[in-house]
Write the C-alpha cells for this entry.
Amino acid sequence: MAKRIKVGVIGLGWPGREHLKGYLKSARAEVVAVCDANEELAGNIAKEHDIPSVYADHKVMFKASDVEAVSVCLPNFLHAPVTLDALRAGRHVICEKPPALDARQARRMADAAKKGGLTLMYALCQRFTGAAKLVKDYVDKGELGEIYFGRAVYHRRRGIPLGTGAWFTDKKRSGGGALIDIGVHALDCAWWMMGSPKPVSVSGSAYHKFADVLPKGTHFDVDDSAFGLIRFDSGATLILECSWALNLSGGSVTQIAGTKGGVEMNPLKILTERDGVQVDITPHVPDADAFGGQTDHFLACVQTGRTPLMGAEEGVRLMQMLDGIYKSAATGREVRIK
Ligand SMILES: NC(=O)c1ccc[n+]([C@@H]2O[C@H](COP(=O)([O-])OP(=O)(O)OC[C@H]3O[C@@H](n4cnc5c(N)ncnc54)[C@H](O)[C@@H]3O)[C@@H](O)[C@H]2O)c1
C-alpha cells in the first residue's frame, strides 16, 4: 500500500463531517488538520478524533501545515477562491458540489489544477451509491444500447435550506437556488449514466414563489424550482426538474432509456427485453457508503495520478449546463453551449 496521504478538511458543516468520517475510515489517509471559521466547532471535532492541528483560516493552514490534500466543504461562493488558494499552494483538492458559482470559475479551477499537475475532483456523491455504480456498469457494457433519453427529478415539497448566515438563499453567495443546490445532484447522476455526452444547447425556466415560507427578513433572490431541457452532441436529450418548494410530492427519480433497455431509479428497476419478452429486473443492491467511497476514490487518484470519476473538466461542463438553464430562464431563449 502506498504511503498515507496527509489530509485536511476545510468547512465542518454536515458534508465536511461526512468527508472527515470517510478519511478516518480510509487506509489511504492520515487526517492532520481541520479548518473552520468557527474555531470552537473545529477544536471540538479535532479533540474528538485526535486530529493534531486546528485552523480558522485556510491560508494559515497551507503555510503552517504539511497537509497534502484537502476537502473544500464551504459555502458555494468560497469553492473557487479557496480551491484556487489550495491548488496554488500545491495541494490536491476535492471540492463539494456545485463545482463553483459559474462555469468561468470552474474553468479557472481546472486550469490551475492542470498547471500544478494536481488532482481536482468534485464531490457528486450520488455517483458512488451502489445503485448508480450498477447502472453505469450496464451502460458501459452496452447492455442498454445507445442511450438517447434521460430524466432527472429532485423535488422537495417544502425544504429551502439556509446554512450558516443564510447563504443558500442569497444569490451572491450561492450562485442560485434549487437548481444549483440539488438539481446539480440529479443532473450530474443522469448525465454521468448517459456517458457524460457534450451538451450543445439548453432551454430552461426558473421560479421564485415561496418567499413567504422563510423567516421574515431572510434575503431570498434565487429559484425555488427550475426546469430544463438539455441537448447533447450525441443527439441525446435530458430533462431536469428540481425544487426546494413545489406543490407536488417530494422525491427523486432518475431514468435513462436506450435502444436495448432502460433504467429507473428510486426504486431501482432495469427494463430489458429477451426474445421479444419485456423483462423487468429489480436488483437488490447493498447500501454503499457513498461519502466514504468518494473520499477513498479521491485519495486513490492522488496516489496514482488517475483522473477522478468527477474531474475538473466535467465540473466545467456541469456548470455550463446550469449556467445555460439560468440564462435561458432569464432571457426566454435557448442557449447554445460551445
Ligand atoms: N454532497 C451533499 O450531499 C451536500 C449536502 C449539503 C451541502 N453540500 C455542500 O457543502 C457545502 C457546505 O454546505 P453546508 O451545508 O455545510 O453549509 P453550512 O453553512 O452549514 O456550513 C459551512 C461551514 O463552513 C464554515 N465556514 C464558512 N466560511 C468559512 C471560511 N471562510 N473558512 C473556514 N470555514 C468557513 C462555517 O463555519 C460552517 O461550519 C456547500 O457547497 C453545499 O452545497 C453538499
The radius of gyration is 20 Å. The chain has a mean pLDDT of 97. The first helix runs from residue 14 to 25.
